[in-house]
Amino acid sequence: MFGLGPWELVIILVIVLIVFGVGRLPELGTGLGEGIKNFKKSYRDAKTIDVTPEEESAAKSTESDKND
């Protein structure tokens, strides 16, 4: 995992505890989790959005109106 061993992860955890304090860690975890959840939701929703330009869709609708 990114070339980090267990001791490096422990050192990073200690630094995070010193910088943010024990009381703010749940808030940080919650914020990070919500951010990841929103990112995944946006990524999923982006796949379903119609990205056809307005001009092409308008041209297709006028062509279909002529055919009717």
Q: What does this 3D model show about the protein?
A:
This protein is mostly helical and 68 residues long. Helix content is 78%, strand content 0%. It contains three helices and no strands. It has helices spanning 6-20, 25-48, 54-67. The longest helix is centred in the middle third of the chain and has 24 residues, at 25-48. The protein starts with 5 loop residues before the first helix and ends with a helix. The model has no long low-confidence stretch (mean pLDDT 80).
Quick synopsis:
Helices cover about 80% and strands about 0% of the residues. The protein contains 3 helices and no strands.
Count the beta strands.
0
The 3D shape can be described as elongated
Largest sheet: none
Fraction of residues in β-strands: under 5%
Span of the ends, CA to CA:
60 Å
Secondary-structure class: mainly alpha
Q: Give the helix proportion (percent range).
A: over 70%
Average pLDDT value?
A: 80
Low-confidence stretches: none
In DSSP terms, counting alpha (H) and pi (I) runs of 4 or more, how many helices?
3
Rg value: 24 Å
Order of helices and strands: HHH
